[in-house]
Amino acid sequence: MNKTDLVNNISEKSGLAKKDVEAVLNGVLGEITEALAQGDKVQLIGFGTFETRKRSGRSGRNPQTGTPIEIPESTVPAFKAGNKLKEAVN
């Protein structure tokens, strides 16, 4: 399912216009992105938690030349599923 499919499904189930659903969805995703960029955690009880994690620096290899390179430390987004979501999937 992609974003367009999600908007269409929500629109059909809620009776709201696709334009309104897309505006709300973009707003939610924007707020989650903004919170993660500031280092905050976003918890949606029953669904899951969006957070950032530090990935430590490490050494790797250039796949074309095989020369060793240093990969710097980085911050990456992460999602941990909540219990209700885990139960729904299983």
Automatic annotation (TrEMBL):
CDD domains: HU
InterPro entries with a match to the protein in the record: Hist_DNA-bd (IPR000119), Histone-like_DNA-bd_CS (IPR020816), IHF-like_DNA-bd_dom_sf (IPR010992)
Molecular function (Gene Ontology), one example: DNA binding
Keyword field: DNA condensation, DNA-binding
SUPFAM superfamilies named among the record's database cross-references: IHF-like DNA-binding proteins
Sequence segments annotated as region (Disordered): 53-90
PANTHER family the record matches: DNA-BINDING PROTEIN HU (PTHR33175), DNA-BINDING PROTEIN HU-BETA (PTHR33175:SF3)
Annotated family: Belongs to the bacterial histone-like protein family.
Protein name in the entry: DNA-binding protein
Species per Swiss-Prot/TrEMBL record: Paenibacillus helianthi
Lineage per the UniProt record: Bacteria, Bacillati, Bacillota, Bacilli, Bacillales
